[in-house]
Design a protein that fits this description.
With about 250 residues, the protein is α/β, with parallel strands linked by helices. It has one domain (about 5-245): Leucine-rich repeat, LRR (right-handed beta-alpha superhelix), CATH 3.80.10. The chain is built from 5 helices and 8 strands.
């Protein structure tokens, strides 16, 4: 089974009850996998803390490029394995109908990762590399960035309220498309940091009706498509319009 290649879709994970059962799948050994979809159930997803352990046990291989998590009912995200040093080739991530999540807080670096960040020489805060991607700053954060991730989609995560500690250029320096869709309880996103997404081409925020806009949205010059619809004060106010047409 370790020879499985390309894409793997696992359904009905709601019937897996523990980390011990999940880890028996040995996903981490399937080094030819590129695309993994984890699906818990069809229909409304009730909060189940047991899902946290199941997701923790489904550690994918380092070759993974595309990850989709759907109908996850746990309240803890991300799992410990969702770190750049474990998934250096990750290009896209989808979270779909994960109704137990209220916030997403990316983990701080381990001592080993922190030492690796400190070893980077000549890296300045907000500097841009030769390939156009924003480089890591040793002064502003203590976590390795997901340098390969270009697409992030959060769809119908109904209880998600806050992305301030997650949606940051320091974590996603090469992101090209961000889609926040039908997250009806989402109240806060760091709109003032969006200007740091120097590779961002596409920003979609739709039907996030609870959003407020206490700070002006700052948009990068790289942006080609901006679509905001039915998203609270973010589309009722003119804060994003002023930034979009700022000649500076």
């Amino acid at each position: 089974m370790n020879q499985l290649s390309r894409k793997l879709y696992i359904r009905s994970l709601v019937y897996v009850e523990s980390w011990k059962e999940a880890v028996e799948a040995r996903l981490v050994d399937k080094q030819y996998l590129k695309d993994l979809s984890l699906h818990w159930k069809v229909g409304p997803c009730k909060l189940r803390t047991s899902h946290n352990g199941v997701l923790e046990g489904l550690h994918p291989p380092s070759s993974m490029e595309h990850l989709q998590i759907e109908q996850f009912g746990g309240d803890s995200f991300p799992p410990s394995w969702l770190q750049p040093q474990n998934l250096p080739s990750l290009k896209s991530m989808y979270l779909v109908k994960c109704d137990g999540l209220e916030r997403i807080v990316l983990p701080r670096a381990t001592p080993e990762a922190d030492a690796l960040i400190s070893s980077f020489d000549g890296v300045l805060s907000g500097s841009v590399g030769a390939d156009g991607s924003q480089q890591a700053s040793t002064n502003n954060y203590a976590c390795l960035p997901f340098t390969s991730l270009t697409l992030l989609v959060l769809l119908s995560c109904r209880k998600l309220k806050n992305l301030d500690q997650c949606l940051s250029p320091e974590y996603f320096p090469s992101i090209q498309s961000i889609q926040l869709l039908f997250c009806e309880s989402l109240e806060s996103i760091p709109v003032d940091k969006f200007g740091g997404f120097v590779c961002l081409h596409d920003l979609q925020i739709m039907h996030c009706r609870s959003l407020v806009c206490p700070r002006e949205m700052v948009l990068p010059k790289s942006l080609e498509r901006l679509y905001i619809e039915h998203s609270g004060k973010l589309d009722r106010d003119s804060c994003w319009t002023r930034s979009l047409y700022n000649p500076d």
